[in-house]
Amino acid sequence: MTAIIGLAFPLYNAFVPYYLATRGADFGDGSVYITYRNQVILSVLGIPGALVGGWAVDLPYVGRKGALSISTILTGVFLFAGTTARTSNGLLGWNCGYTFTSNIMYGVLYAMTPELFPTKDRGTGNGLASTANRIFGIMAPIIALYADLTTSVPIWVAGALFLLGGVISLLVPLEPRGKTSL
User: Fold this and answer.
1) Dihedral sign, CA of 125, 127, 133, 135?
2) pLDDT tens column, 32-76
3) Which residues are CB-contacts of 10 (< 8 A; sequence separation ≥ 6)?
4) How far does CA 119 lie from the centroid of its chain?
5) With contact defined as beta carbons under 8 Å apart, do 38 and 143 qualify?
6) Tag placement on the chain: N or C end, fewer CB within 10 Å?
7) CB < 8 Å & 24+ apart, contacts of 136-140
8) What's the CA gap between 26 and 24, in Å, rounded?
């Protein structure tokens, strides 16, 4: 699952500017001020996202699997919704939701992944999961080199990967919430 998320994130981020530009999006002022203002807004939203992720992992009946699934699916939904933006503020609004839910997702993912491995294998398992995330992340720019930037397919594939990741997280055979380590 970490590999799927590792591919979906940069795939979306690499293609969304081209996709929106070819669909008639008018972003208006592309000044340095607006760029940094938007980046600060998105970065600030990451803080409560991470805190909500820390809180969500201990929710009864939801647990780590449920929190990961819900946040990953919502990340994909906000990604799809972001493709409808036609203004800079519209894109900022959708990206606020995307950033908030993706920070929940990553918070839960990084909290849950080590717990899935027995103690003696935890470092290796976590390292392999992180490596898969990074290797798949490297594939996104390579895809961008060979893909047609005017098509919407990469955006929809990235969104579908998040939705798939949300479903796969429910298939993890172990719910580590409330259990001691092996």
Assistant:
1) negative
2) 787 788 889 989 998 999 999 989 888 888 888 899 999 999 999
3) 137, 140, 141
4) 27
5) no
6) C
7) 136/3, 136/4, 136/6, 136/7, 137/6, 137/7, 137/9, 137/10, 139/7, 140/7, 140/9, 140/10, 140/11, 140/13, 140/14
8) 6
Helix axes of 2-22 and 122-146: crossing angle, nearest 10 degrees = 20
Which amino acid, one-letter code, is at 52?
V
- Report yes or no: 149 and 18 within 8 Å, Cβ to Cβ: yes
Q: Is the pLDDT of residue 147 over 90?
A: no
- CA dist., res. 129 & res. 141, Å (int): 20
Q: Please give the average per-residue pLDDT across 105-125, as a whole number.
A: 88
